[in-house]
Write the structure tokens for this entry.
Amino acid sequence: MIGQPLSRVDGPVKVTGRATYAYEYRQDEAPLYGVIVTATIGRGDIREIDLSQAQRSPGVCEIVTHENAPAQGARDAPSPSVLSYARARPTLTNPKVGHYGEAVALVVAETLEQAQAAANLVRIAYVAETGDFDFMANAGKAYTPKALLFGMPSDSAVGHFYAGYDSAPIKIDHEYNTPYWFSQPMEPNACLAVPRGEDLELYVSTQIVDRAPVWPAR
Amino acid sequence: MKPFTYERVTDLRAAGAAASRAGAKFVSGGTNLLDLMKLEIEQPMHLVDISRLPLKQIEDLPNGGIRIGAQAANSDVAADHRVRARYPVLSEALLSGASGQLRNKASIGGNLLQRTRCSYFYDTAAQCNKRTPGTDCAAVQGVNRIHAILGASDACIATHPSDMAVAMSALEAQIELLEPNQSTRRVAIDDFYCPPGSTPHIETTLRPGEMITSVVLPPPPPGRQRYRKVRDRASYEFALVSVAVIVARDGETITTARVSLGAVAYKPWRSIEAEAALKGRPATLSTYQAAADAAMRSAVGRGHNDFKIELAKRTLCRTLADAAQTSTGRQL
């Protein structure tokens, strides 16, 4: 396989629009659409949320914020045996903003376009705090972590590089640069949620299927 | 997206009448306008689709120049055998922009009128004098890696994103315009875009309801033409710096030169200073460096984009060397 130009088996289905994405597994009735409103500050607090315009926008069914979101369980404690992102992540639980782009509201409407239009009308006032956002300005504080995921060592070294390199008969010392390469998933970040009595059926796009039931906050 | 009405016009008189309606805006390929409408940055009340107007032809002019219809697709102009033979810098510039699908859809007139890709212009939570006049420019104190180093003001440091326009600037293109009352006029591309000053929301000298009907290229100047684009990604990416040059030489001496730079200012930046530093000088690296210094003499960095000044100089030197290379294969 190495060096061979292999085609993805799902390629033709995806580029011809025939692939069914997670959010397209429609149930018996037409779904409602939710659009997430995200924080526009890097750190601070939500001072006030004005939903008056958004609530009057056509097609809007529900707007969830930290002020009216149902209670959720606490976030699981960190554990060295569990990937940090494979823990339940309660959201909209308080007015704190921890990062730019954090979810601060969910607007639900009859169509995607209606939900997007109403999301644009959610007015949020913040009390912004200062933060350290310049990566290089803080380079001096960089440290080597004790361990990585699952306790893997943060540095790995085999043998004695400099001793071997210094005594090598032929040396090649060159710096290589490559441009950024991205693996771009074609599937949009969207899931389908179907309430079934006390249960919730979720159709999601995920890399780690067996961890997916853990993610939704309970 | 805000509700709007849509109308397709097939003759110029109807287009002029439609453009006079309140909140009207022309649309052709829609490759930029529709994105901006979805973000509610553009909120036209009435869209007038001019893509079916009979303005797609590319015609030779008696003086040896060429007229390119404003509704011609970017792809068709790039592939036209006359453009490739006589204006290769334009073909190269067009093909370096966007993607095949976008070039098939995007028109020549729309390319000239595309809006900046400044991230703060697109981020409706950020302050932007271009989007909301009289607020502030978030880019001046923000992440301004892609922003202008020439011709900017404290109110706006956005760049014009077109590749095509950079080549047209070096070719001294004239833009032909039609007003709603059917009167016509011509504007040199160098006079078409307005410096941001304190009014960065006013981007061109277009009058209300006025439409670009065609772009006229004068006969190509003597010399070899080159376009070079430097960007973060190998394709489907806007330029950090681009350069269009046309260099003519007699033996070892440069007789005339044209130099325009892209992604450095609110418009394709013609550098008369660099051209003067090349004319009559030997075709050597020191000449190119002097021209590059001249081109960047009034350049101002804003922090993250400081590197663009040196990048522009090196890109210009390299491209001048390419263009000045003789047919015997002599290289610097």
About this structure: Residues 112-119 of chain A form the longest helix (8 residues). The interface with chain B takes residues 40, 113, 116-117, 120, 179-180 of chain A (CB under 8 Å). Chain A has a mean pLDDT of 89.
